[in-house]
Specification:
The structure is a single chain. By secondary structure, the chain is α+β, with helices and mostly antiparallel strands. Among the domains are: 39 residues, Orthogonal Bundle (Arc Repressor Mutant); 80 residues, ACT-like. Chain A, domain 2 (Alpha-Beta Plaits), CATH 3.30.70.1150. It is 32% helix and 27% strand. The protein is built from five helices and six strands, in the order H-H-E-H-E-E-H-E-E-E-H. Strand 2 and strand 3 form a beta hairpin. The longest helix has 19 residues. The radius of gyration is 21 Å and the shape is elongated. The C terminus is likely disordered. This is Putative nickel-responsive regulator.
Length: 183
């Protein structure tokens, strides 16, 4: 069952609202409500993954020179030492020397962070980054909403448990008779 929507009001300064509206447009949210939901969910996810014991998913990106010492061997050893945490890995050759490794990790946030730090800290890694997200829903009944852009002029937000359409942000409002409210 879908979590029912609840309306509430927010009072903010004019400059903050203008900046928020620019943010909403740049990130292609169809309206203010979707943008607020997206930001609130992102803040809650961040709060959850800051807790060491929370279940998290992590994406580690590494760029390294595979000719630098035993770096490829060391990265492989670290991953094999944590087979229960490494979900998958992708290796891409950027040029004759440099490689990009993308590693998907799962586990307690503190364990994922530690393994990511170990991987990023291997001598010879040029750049490394960890992006963490909650592995379990942070709101509602397991239905999470997200926004993404398909590169064809607009993005959209949808929940994971129903199909979605590819229409511009004003398409629904244009079909709706009567008064149109801004965002």
């Amino acid at each position: 069952m879908k979590d029912p929507l609840v309306r509430f009001s927010v009072a903010i300064g004019g400059e903050l609202l203008r900046r928020f509206d620019r943010y909403r447009e740049e990130h292609r949210y169809p309206n203010r409500s979707e943008a607020v939901r997206g930001l609130m969910t992102a803040a809650l996810v961040e709060d959850v993954v800051e807790r060491d014991e929370s279940e998290a998913m992590g994406v580690v990106t590494l760029v390294y020179d595979h000719h630098a010492g035993r770096i490829a061997e060391r990265l492989t050893e670290l991953q094999h030492g944590h087979v229960e945490r490494v979900v998958t890995t992708t290796h891409v050759h950027l040029d004759e020397r440099r490689c990009l490794e993308v590693i998907l990790l799962r586990g307690q946030a503190k364990v994922v962070r530690q393994l990511a730090d170990d991987l990023i800290g291997v001598k010879g890694v040029e750049t490394g980054r960890l992006v963490l997200t909650a592995a379990t829903p942070v709101v509602g009944n397991g239905v999470q909403s997200h926004h993404h852009d398909h590169g064809h002029g607009h993005g959209h937000r949808h929940e994971h448990d129903h199909p979605h359409t590819h229409e511009g942000p004003d398409a629904k409002a244009a079909r709706r008779p009567g008064k149109r409210r801004p965002g």
